[in-house]
Design a protein that fits this description.
The protein has 103 residues and is mainly alpha-helical. Helix content is 93%, strand content 0%.
Length: 103
């Protein structure tokens, strides 16, 4: 039955979107934690040498990129979730219409 397929596809999409949101949230949290640890390390080694400062700047840039990627992935997950919600709602409406028509 086509409605059953649409409902299953929507539910699977909801599960994938939920997993994507969870993974993106963890990535954002980990990027923040790495940045905090790195800042503490930088405070302890403040003024050691220019190479260390350059390495710490690179590390902060990578951490910022991870956080940015995580935010983009989080937004994509939210958009996917909304789209799959509409799929499930449409299948539900179609099923309701079919039940009303046959009754």
């Amino acid at each position: 039955m086509e409605i059953n397929g649409a409902m299953n596809a929507g539910l699977q999409g909801l599960q994938r979107a939920s997993q994507q949101v969870n993974e993106a949230s963890a990535e954002i949290a980990n990027a923040g934690a790495r940045n905090e640890v790195q800042q503490q390390g930088n405070a302890q080694a403040n003024g050691v040498n220019a190479a260390t400062e350059s390495a710490s700047e690179t590390g902060q840039s990578v951490s910022a990129n991870n956080a940015t990627d995580g935010l983009v992935s989080l937004q994509q997950g939210e958009t996917n979730f909304e789209a799959n919600t509409r799929t499930v709602e449409t299948a539900d409406e179609m099923l309701g219409t079919m039940i009303d028509t046959s009754a």
